[in-house]
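User: Small ask, check this?
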Amino acid sequence: MIRTVDSPTPVSAPVLAAYSYCETVTGQQARNFAYGIRLLPAPKRRAMSALYAFSRRVDDIGDGALADDVKVARLEDTRALLARVQDGAVAEDDTDPVAVALAHAAQAFPIPLGGLDELIDGVLMDVRGETYETWDDLKVYCRCVAGAIGRLSLGVFGTEPGARGAERAPEYADTLGLALQLTNILRDVREDAGNGRTYLPSDDLAKFGCAGGFHGSTPPEGSDFAGLVHFEVRRARALFAEGYRLLPMLDRRSGACVAAMAGIYRRLLDRIEREPEAVLRGRVSLPGREKAYVAARGLSGIDTRRHTSRLTVRRRA
């Protein structure tokens, strides 16, 4: 067994190797989340990387080029693997490093692994090509693919002893996940349309003259595309405001992780709001230096204190 400096409990060499694999996947593929995950102490960072690597596997199946029936079979195989993890049936010498790491993380932290079942359900909705008539319909999907991740992450973060309103922490984590997912949907409007997917509610599309979909780098003729984007941005901002109520309930480094991840998406939302048509020309993103700056602000506590003070002002009002 190997006892690391920043881990209070020993971790075996095979498990550390499995975690190392997951951290590599996270560092290479989590273009936004990795900046926040790096701020966590090693045990939480490893557990979050295991969650990310499993989630990435599920997403990659859904987004891949396989036939739909093969995707469904692969997703159900992944669900069966998750069941083995939940049943404690994954040994340290298992050949799947993601399963090994996730099994250890689930033993170390009270992670509600059922959230990964929800993620698989959400990706199956993608495979079936489901569309959404109303925001309430879309929320079901967003809760599966993003709200569940927020609740899973909260299992790793935990809440501070005696934190006021901690019983609502899962609700706030879920809502923050919805805010991030709606931002993703806005960012990827053109890419999703090219893949035959439409996520924005059809009611909203019709209201702003966009019911015909998005097929080029310019808005549909006669539409109020900017109005549509600004409408969805306001919805996302309201979700962020509600989800940020989670921050005062977390310890410093968990709060920094959440503030960094959410802060990156908030800045992305700002860019989309300033230039709505940019999402039709390509993927809107932040440069690495700006993401690093947001992460540094999160670690310093600036963003956490700022949002906490806003909540205090609202409560007093």
